[in-house]
Amino acid sequence: MSKSRVLVVHYSSPSGQLNDVIRNLTGPLEGGAGVELRHLVLRPKRAYPFPWPVLRFFDTFPETIYLDPPELEPLGLAGGERFDLVILGYQVWFLSPSLPTTAFLKSPEAQALLRDTPVVTVIACRDMWLMAQERVKELLAACGAKLVGNVVLVDEGGSVGSLLATPLWMMTGKRGPRWGGLIPRAGVKPEQIKASRRFGERIASVLARAGALDAGLLQGLGAVKVNTRLIATEKAARRSFLAWGALLRLLGKQGAWQRQPVVLFYIFFLIALLITVLPLSALLKTLTAPLLRGRIAAQQAYFSQPSGE
Fold it and tell me: Which domain holds residue 173?
């Protein structure tokens, strides 16, 4: 009996969080008698720093939101290689897949590799991942891939706490907590990362019995939880990123000195937006939620697919 071939594709910043998630999730597949597991770590030719300098961090968002792929080191895939399942682990940058992930999904190798292949996406991020997954779904569809599962692990600090904790982690390299716990620890809880092993166990079980790799693969395991309060917020924030990103791209390429004053202004603009508009928006959503219950339920069902809540 031939082994099931599983390819794990991922890029994790030097913080290493996504690597930990992937390691735990794929643990049950490692060394399995019926599984041949292979890892493909994406390596951009120009490495991204960690911690990030503030201006470089924000100067990355125009290319990220517009899915401009950076150059990657050779992927090392043989022509015509096929796999029974691809697990794609990615981070969310500015409501979009990380740039190395975008580069992979737009590569000729991915076009050939993913056609008619079941794919499970694995996300480790703050708590705003919906728009990023929409872009990944579009890129996978362009490759002819079949999305059969999605796993999302979000920061333990919640929407408000991680709003400060995550950028500080990215720009200082320290998770926290800070100020006596007023700003919580950044990142996904270690217990949640360890618990992601259950998804690998389900995948291993299905492969062992030659079961169907379809949309039922990860259902019933709590792989995804949609925060419906963030749907409208993500859509509005994406529109803002697109508008400002278009302006910055007109001023020059990433790192161009002409972009730096505008990037700095945008940072202060974002801070003002978070202080003023975000609280008012949250209040409005709370007041209107009873009137939009049906619509919200439909959105929740859509964004939770294919794994379901």
Answer: 4-304
